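Posted in: Protein Modeling Q&A

I'm a second-year student putting together a small comparison for a lab meeting, and my supervisor asked me to include a predicted structure for UDP-galactose/UDP-glucose transporter 3. I've never done this before, so apologies if this is the wrong subforum. The sequence is pasted below exactly as I got it from our records. If anyone can share the C-alpha cell output, I'd also love a short note on what stands out.
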Amino acid sequence: MEAHGGGLRRILVLAFCVAGIWSAYIYQGVLQENVSTKRFGPRQERFEHLAFLNLAQNVVCLIWSFIMIKIWSSGNGGGAPWWTYWSAGITNTIGPAMGIQALKYISYPAQVLAKSSKMIPVMLMGTLVYGIRYTFPEYLCTFLVAGGISTFALLKTSSKTISKLANPNAPLGYGLCFLNLAFDGFTNATQDSLKARYPKTSAWDIMLGMNLWGTIYNVIYMFGWPHASGFEAVRFCQQHPEAAWDIFLYCCCGAVGQNFIFLTISRFGSLANTTITTTRKFVSIVVSSLLSGNPLSTKQWGCVFMVFSGLSYQIYLKWQKLQRLQKKRKAM
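Accepted answer (user: helix_wrangler)
Welcome! Here is the predicted structure, written out as C-alpha cells:
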C-alpha cells in the first residue's frame, strides 16, 4: 500500500512538472511572438530591440537564482567560482540574441523547428572533427530532422505570416538559428566542464553565474555608449507599457520554467526532461498556428511531424541505451 502511495505521488509530481514546463514555455513563446511581431500604439510601432529581451531575462533570472540560493543552499560552498563562467557567459549572451533576432526574418514555428535540430551540428562535428561513428538509427533521426527542416524552409510561407515579419528573409533567419545552436553547444560543453571540475556546483549556482555574466555583457552592449539601443528600448517601454508588461511576463515565465526543469532533472533525470521539452516545442507550434495567426499548409504540417518523429525516435534510442546500462549495473 505504501509503495502504491509512493508511485502515485511520483506520478503527480511528474504531472506537476509537465504542466509547469508546458505552461511556462508555451506562454513565453506566445509573449515572445507578440513582442517581435505586434505593432504598438496609435503609430503602430514595432519593438525593434529584441536583444533587450535577453538582458531583461538575465536580470530577472539573476535575482531569482540569488533568492533560491539564499533559501535552499546548505552553505557548504565548493561550487564553481562566479568568475569561471565568463567564457560560457559570452556564448550564452550571443547565442540566444541570435535566436531572438531570427524572429524578424522567419516565423515562430520555423524558429522552433530550426532550434530543435541540435543533434545535427553535434553529429556533424563528431563525425568530421573527432571521427565518431554513429549507428544507422542515429543517422535516421538526423535525416528526419534535417529533411523536415529543409523542406519546411523551401515551402512557401503564407502571405499572412510574412506580413507579420519585420524583414522577411528566410536564409538569414535560419542562419541565425543555426549559429544560435552552435553557440549553445559551446555553452553546454563549458557548463559540463565546470560541473566536472566543481562537483558541488548546483543548478542554481550555474544559473546565477551564467546570468551574472549575461547581465554584464548585455548592459555593456545595450548601454555602453550614448546612443546605444538599450536607451531606445527603455524609451519604447515607457511609451508603451503594454510592451513592458509583455517583456516582464516573458522573463517571469523563463525563471519559472527553469525551476520546473531543475525539479524534473533532479527527480526524473535528463531523459524525462528532454521528452517533456520536445513535446512542448510541438505544442508551441500548434498554439502559434491556432492562436497567433501563423497558418501552416498540409505539407508544412507534414514537415513538422517529420521533425518530431525524428526527435521522438532519438528519445526512444536514449531510453533503450539507459535501460541497457541499468541492466549491466544490476548484473554486476
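A couple of things worth pointing out for your meeting: DSSP finds 13 helices and two strands in the chain. The two ends are 31 Å apart (CA to CA).
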